[in-house]
Amino acid sequence: KVLIAAILVLGIHCALGSAAAVDLDLERATTAADTTRDWWQVAQLYQIYPRSYKDSDGDGIGDLQGIISKLDYLKEIGVTATWLSPIYSSPMADFGYDISDFFDIQPEYGTLADFDELIAEAKKRNIKIILDFVPNHSSDENVWFQKSVKREKGYEDYYMWHDGYVNATTGKREPPSNWLQAFRGSAWDWNDERQQYYLHQFAVKQPDLNYRNPAVVAQMKRVLTYWLDRGVAGFRMDAVPWCFEVLPDADGRYPDEPLSGYTDDPDDSSYLKHIYTQDLRETVEMVFQWRTLLDDYQRIHGGDTRVIMVETYSGLDYVMQFYGNRTTKGAQMPFNFQFIIGGNGDKNNTQLNATGFVKIISSWLSQMPAGQTANWVMGNHDQRRVGSRYGENRIDLMNMLQMFLPGVSITYQGEELGMTDLDISWEDSRDPAACNSNSDIYEQFTRDPARTPFQWSDEANAGFSTNATTWLPINPNYVTVNAKAENSTSPSHLSLYKQLVDLRKSKTLQFGATRYANVGDNVVAIRRYLSGEPSYVLVANVLDTSVSGIDVASAIYATGSYKIKLLNPQAKATVGDSVTLSNLTLEPYAALILESV
After folding, report:
1. How many Cβ atoms are within 10 Å of 295's Cβ, its own excluded?
2. Which of 410, 587, 336 is nearest to 43 (CA)?
3. Alpha helix locations (H) across 59-153?
4. Same domain flag for 108 and 140
5. Are 229 and 246 members of one domain?
6. Domain residue limits at 91
7. CATH code of the domain in which 146 resides
8. In this structure, are strands 408-412 and 188-191 parallel, antiparallel, or unpaired?
9. Does 218 lie in the same domain as 98?
10. Could you tell me which residue ranges the Glycosyl hydrolase family 13 catalytic domain spans (predicted)?
11. 570 and 540 in one domain?
């Protein structure tokens, strides 16, 4: 098992001529005590946003048959498992995260028969399919909500209902609390038919389920079992921290949340500190129940381990609870969003230096419970693309880093190509996070730029669709940034990505120990090593200035001779060249992976 144990506080500062000092206070070491791993522990996971992946029927929207047609591509780039953003029946108020039927497929994506075909065809290629599970809410068009509105027996308390209060001064009825939704404005909305408010922490068409109702808990377990029966390998669980809210007081009142001080915009979710609506312990314990369900299913039905991946941007002290404890198993992969949140907290990391990179790596590895597996998420459908957040000169460097670190790598579609954000006009915006604002401020909320269609070729509409238009505009850079062109060109982002996939299959990267440090502001150095196997070292200059005379060997305790195994185009060197780790020169944004000889 992986033991994240040694934190070496050496307090040594070695002068390196004109180079910055090595700060070994930030060094961390991880060790591997055995060479046994479950399939997911060394997996290369890949997120597909189905609406934007491949359109098979010419309507400008991606679909399941489109994914099936590209399974050979996934196999070619080494994908172990792919998780699909929601494909369930939905009115598409939040593009599938508002589910009207948890047991069926959205017609524009296909049918249950298409899904079964996807499972079968993926299995032929040894690719597992993981579904996005949306536990916090449903669509207001879901039959459960419609029955709850009518107070039908068994559904009265399926959702979070409240009378609210009449303002003694105005005589008008007001919401039960000041709680805010993620997409701006009150989290409470009045239902005329039921004559009560319902809670929706996301869009008004996404009412929150009531997890304090055992019937809801049982229903959602039926949802999980249904899709397990259809062959999925596990679930990525959406917006998990919102599942439970604090209980009301003896008078039935919910407490107001305190002001955060982060913004003066009273409609912005960040206006409040969400201490009563997010990150409750009951939510962690619900994930434990879901893990038990998946483990029981495997014990009864056999097959490989079914996995849980948890989406949470909460503080790491809360995130780490999802792993479980000595007596209870939790999620195998609470998502590690530290490279998204970033070293400076504002998600724009184009100026992040080596100290910041090491801080990000250390934040996870130093706090992860012993015996657990790390995972590295660089991007997803809710965040600006890696090349836009970290800078286009760092695209290869970031892929090298993700593939080199210990544990699970998780790639969002298109990052292997170096796809970048497309600025979407107000008129073309589709994301409710943007559309619920206004034309002056929508760009600070929109998620559309990272959701543009996948760029398959330089053909019309990037080979994504034969339709005259697509649901979101396509980035004009598809003419050169596309899978077809990069497959036939070397060097390219895709060619390097595939080389990284091959290297990642080595025993050293799958089972080896890890030591890492920053060397001054410019250089990140990581060593992976395993007894009886070649050692590998990643050195990356993360800034736009050259460095020379860098002593990486002292920083990561590397001895012996090394040669270049892989490099990005910014590195002015050649594969096979010998390298002196105690006296390195690196061009701006140059990254090398070195192999011991």
Report:
1. 13
2. 410
3. 64-69, 71-76, 112-124, 143-149
4. no
5. yes
6. 44-135+214-253+275-446+493-500
7. 3.90.400.10
8. unpaired
9. yes
10. 47-451
11. yes
Rounded to 5 degrees, what are φ and ψ at 189?
A: -135, 140
Q: Tell me if 432 sits within 8 A of 439, measured CB to CB.
A: no
* Cα gap 108→57, rounded to integer Å: 9
**What does DSSP say about strands 375-377 and 408-412: parallel, antiparallel, or unpaired?**
parallel
The structure tokens listed for 492 are 């390219």
Catalytic residues: 238, 311
Considering the domain architecture, whether residues 529 and 392 belong to the same structural domain is answered as no
**Residue 298: how many other CB atoms lie within 10 Å:** 14
CB atoms under 10 Å from CB of 578, counted, come to 10
Cα–Cα distance measured from residue 495 to residue 493, given in angstroms and rounded to the nearest whole number: 6
- Per-residue confidence band for 1, with pLDDT thresholds at 50, 70 and 90: very low
Is the N-terminal amide bond of 432 cis, ω within 30° of 0? no
| Length, in residues, of the chain | 597
pLDDT tens digits for range 221-280: 999 999 999 999 999 999 999 999 999 999 999 999 999 999 999 999 999 999 999 999
Query: What is the b/e burial string over 334-355, where b = at least 16 CB atoms within 10 angstroms of the residue's CB?
Result: bbbbbbbbbbeeeeebeebbbb
| Same-domain check for residues 314 and 346 | yes
- Rounded to 5 degrees, φ, ψ at 343 are -65, -25
Q: What pTM value is reported for the model?
A: 0.93
Please write the tens of the pLDDT for every residue from 176-200. Answer: 999 999 999 999 999 999 999 999 9
Residue with tokens 């709680």: 179
Closest residue by Cα to residue 522 from 536, 505, 542 = 542
Torsion over CA: 309, 311, 316, 319 (sign) = negative
DSSP helix/strand/coil, 164 = coil
**What's the count of helices (H) and strands (E) in the chain, helices before strands?**
16, 27
Closest CA to 580 of 566, 597, 569: 597
Tokens of 297: 């299913």
Residue 596 token pair: 């011991």
3-state secondary structure of 523: strand
pLDDT confidence bin for 2, thresholds 50/70/90? very low
Dump the DSSP string for 193-228. TTTEEEE-SS-TT-PBB-TTSHHHHHHHHHHHHHHH
Same domain (yes/no): 224, 313: yes
Burial 409-430, CB ≥16 within 10 A → b, else e: bbbbbbbbbbbbbbebeeeebb
Q: What is the pLDDT of residues 351-380, one digit of tens each?
A: 999 999 999 999 999 999 999 999 999 999
Distance CA 199, CA 250 (A): 19
Residues 146, 109 within the same domain: no
- For residue 151, the one-letter residue type is R
The answer to whether 550 touches 521, Cβ cutoff 8 Å, is no
Distance CA 396, CA 481 (A): 14
Domain count, the chain: 3
**20-58 pLDDT tens trace:** 333 333 445 565 556 789 999 999 999 999 999 999 999
Report the C-alpha gap between 281 and 279 in whole angstroms: 7
Domain limit, last residue, from 500, 527, 543: 500
Pairing, β 578-579 against β 562-567: antiparallel
Which tokens is 74 given?
């996934």
